[in-house]
Amino acid sequence: LDHFCVDYLSARYRQQLLAMSTLLFLTTNTSKMLLHTPVFPKYFPAIIKLLAWHPRTVSSEILPLIPAMVGPTTFAELFHTLLDLPLTAAFMEQYDRPEESPADAQFSRLGLDRLWPAFRAVQQYVMRNEAGVEGMCIWEARDEAHLSMIRVLWNSLPVTPRVSSVCKLVPRCLRVYLNVLLTNAPPSCIEKVVPLLLQRFASLYPVDFFLNAVHSLIIDTLQAIFQQWPSFLISLRNEVVDAISMPLDVQGRRLVLHLCWIIGELLSPAMCSECRGDVAVFFEALEMLAYEAISVRPEDPAEKKRRTLRGLQSSAPKGEIE
Fold it and tell me: How far apart are CA 284 and CA 277, in angstroms?
């Protein structure tokens, strides 16, 4: 199994017949594979890479397999893997070329040198074939150099028809993933999903329709989670407050708006009777947010004129005013 997933499949993933045969076998034997092998929790990166390269032909076979990949040890890494699938597809097209000689691989392409440590770390992450390798998931390690390299790749790799197709499929895969979690996972597991949703909202492949679809899904999921478990607002107060306090773009302000609604609708002092300061943290953050919104709001011309006249009247001698 290790030889097939790590050595054979990773070297021949471009063969469409092999990809279809592999996924059909896994779909047909899902229950047996779950009971007797670690193929889904351990080798899901190799399986999902087939979708990155064959998005038009294997999507119907991948979707039924996603529930088998979700588990207590895999849900976080699988979440990042699905969101990074457009990057994986673009990277495979641009940098994983079997016809390229080792000498050519030394030269930079799109201004990026393959020998850079950050580049090699991103390459190992997106092209990995096994899950659960310590330090491999860049979003969990949070090394700033590696995250910066991902952003560079986002903005330099071309959006090809394959990448566009993958961007359309990822929200469907993510919806299946989240439905499985919300339906079957224990609250302790779902609580750990919220920081992941907040973390990746502003860290996605920059394709507009992909951003819109994933952002809507993240917002809907956050609302569903907090409505079912409002106590998470207290246990995750630091993450929520950080999310509404960070300077974001237009899409980020959309997240902040919905988080404000969640806080106003669901937060209650009764949720933390032992420590009222937990609630005060939210109100302080909202007060600061409101102050910033007022300070950057364009001033109405009529109000500006009235304020100027009041200033002149207050500074002029009393006799002149009369």
Answer: 10
The Cα–Cα gap between 85 and 164 comes to: 11
User: With contact defined as beta carbons under 8 Å apart, do 66 and 180 qualify?
Assistant: yes
Cα separations (Å) of 152 from 89, 127, 246, 312, 320? 16, 17, 21, 53, 63
d(CA 67, CA 303): 58
Provide the residue type at 56 as one letter: R
pLDDT tens-digit series, residues 126-178: 999 999 887 788 998 888 999 999 999 999 899 999 999 999 999 999 999 99
At 289, the amino acid letter reads L
Q: Which long-range CB contacts under 8 A does 216-221 form with residues at least 24 apart?
A: 217/171, 217/174, 217/175, 217/178, 218/255, 219/254, 219/255, 219/258, 221/178, 221/182, 221/193, 221/197
Nearest Cα to Cα of residue 195 among 80, 272, 281, 88: 80
Phi first, then psi, for residue 273 (nearest 5°) are: -65, -25
List all residues 6 or more positions away from 254 whose beta carbon is below 8 Å from its beta carbon.
215, 219
